Amino acid sequence: MKNTNAIGLDIKKAEKLANKLNYLLANYSIFYQNVRGYHWNIRGEKFFELHLKFEELYNDLLLKIDEIAERILTLGYAPDHNYSGYKKISQVAESSQVTDGLKAVTDILNSFKITISLQRELLILSADANDEGTNALMSDYIRAQEKLVWMYSAFLNKK
């Protein structure tokens, strides 16, 4: 038992999970700020529709950011919290001002591709660590985000 943390997980495996969750947190944080920018700067004929959808999305991303940080804390580690660090490691690229809805939705789909892939990696790590909490969180995120990918792809008329 001395090699386990407060929730009974192997310390080394928990550390690996926390590190990967911090990486996911960085990607989510850049994704979140990008979507805020799309919400603020969107223009054009689909303004009302996209303005609302982007607000829904950034609110959801903010909730997930908090859940990921809290999961890192639950594992016994500290969540990273500065954008300069996030920007250095994130696969999701920081977006410049985007006013075009089609470009914004394309960027969102690319960000989902990255985050879903990272979450799948976390499923493997959490299964190996017998960490049902992280596993359930990632599974829930993937299920919901796959549906969003379908919906945003339909908006772009892409398969």
Can I get a quick summary?
By secondary structure, the chain is mainly α. The chain contains 5 helices and no strands.
Q: What fold name stands as the CATH topology? A: Ferritin
Strand content: under 5%
Query: How many strands appear in the DSSP assignment?
Result: 0
Please name the fourth-level CATH homologous superfamily.
Ferritin, core subunit, four-helix bundle
Fold and architecture overview:
The chain is an all-alpha fold and 159 residues long. It has a single domain, classed as Ferritin, core subunit, four-helix bundle (Ferritin, Up-down Bundle). The chain contains 5 helices and no strands. The longest helix has 31 residues. The protein is elongated, with a radius of gyration of 17 Å. The mean pLDDT is 96.
Write the layout of secondary structure elements.
Blueprint: H1 11-41, H2 47-74, H3 83-89, H4 101-128, H5 132-155
Helix pairs in contact: 1-2, 1-3, 1-4, 4-5
What distinguishing features does this structure have?
159 residues; mainly alpha; Ferritin; 74% helix
